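EI: anyone free to look at a 337-residue chain?
SC: sure, send it
EI:
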Amino acid sequence: MKVAVVNKVGQNLDIEERGTPEPGANEVVLRQDLTGICYRDILTRDGFFPRLHTPIVPGHEVSGIIEKVGSGVEYFQVGDRVTSLIYVPCGHCYNCVSGNENLCTNKKTLGENIDGAYSKYVRLNQRSLVKVPKEVTSELAAISACVTGMLVNALKRVGGITEGSRVVITGAGGGVGTHAIQIAKAFGAEVTAVTSSQWKVDSLYKLGADHVISSEGEFNKKVKEIWADGANISLENTGDATFNEAFRSLGFGGKMVVVGNLKPSSPPLQLGVLILKGNTISGNISSTRKDIMDALEMSAKKKIKVVVSEEISIDQINEAYERIKEKKNVGRVFIKF
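SC: here you go
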């Protein structure tokens, strides 16, 4: 089978031929027909993550059918349709036993220190697996951990979204933002989408955004024109370019949930405003199995539709990375096998 591999940090991925993996204890081998490309994968190639081991197969957006089962696997069998967390939780630390396995202190991450999803067959630990309802497409299953499940975590568990919440979403035209609009609307929120690309505006309205504004300049003023009391939640998905304006868009008691741009930076922050308005800023990492199940249930009920920018072969991976970096896509790019 063809596999995309990071052999040297900062260089293009290599396409290699490898045999089909065999499952170890507590593992399964999954057959995929597609996998998603996340911007995190590009950061992996560029050496952003200190735990990165090379050579490594990137990718963590998994969807497929179990082909082989190793010893000790208890809850899954050949033929089960599953997706996966983007990591393998240890299962015994404080966060794991309290249902917050996304915060596991001992986790191993797909595509970072264990081989990931850029191949037709993928070896996975049973602690990472979640069964997929038959009504859910492969594309929606693949993004249920890193995109839709993560957004359920960010908006519901962290942001506290409720019916009627006023939500600002930055980076609204990307692979995360396009699905964030839909999930926020499914929770009954009013959404203002923020984008730097004028050509994406019509698409964002079609996805359900109530308002679409440009990220240029002091866009918090545009938000306050829409909602005099400001936003209840700012979903910050871009980084330095929009961080301060997303924060300033909040009303009293508003929460900013930071989900995008993992690069180390020091964006400006008005501490006086943070205190006097009683705002909260929280980071959000990935999803739990419960978040994935919630996202899959929403998908099965047709509350979320996948936004596909393009489908590529694994041989086209390096060119696709460049298009993603240049923001030339609306939605997710998938590798088809």
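EI: Residues 144-158 form the longest helix (15 residues).
SC: 👍
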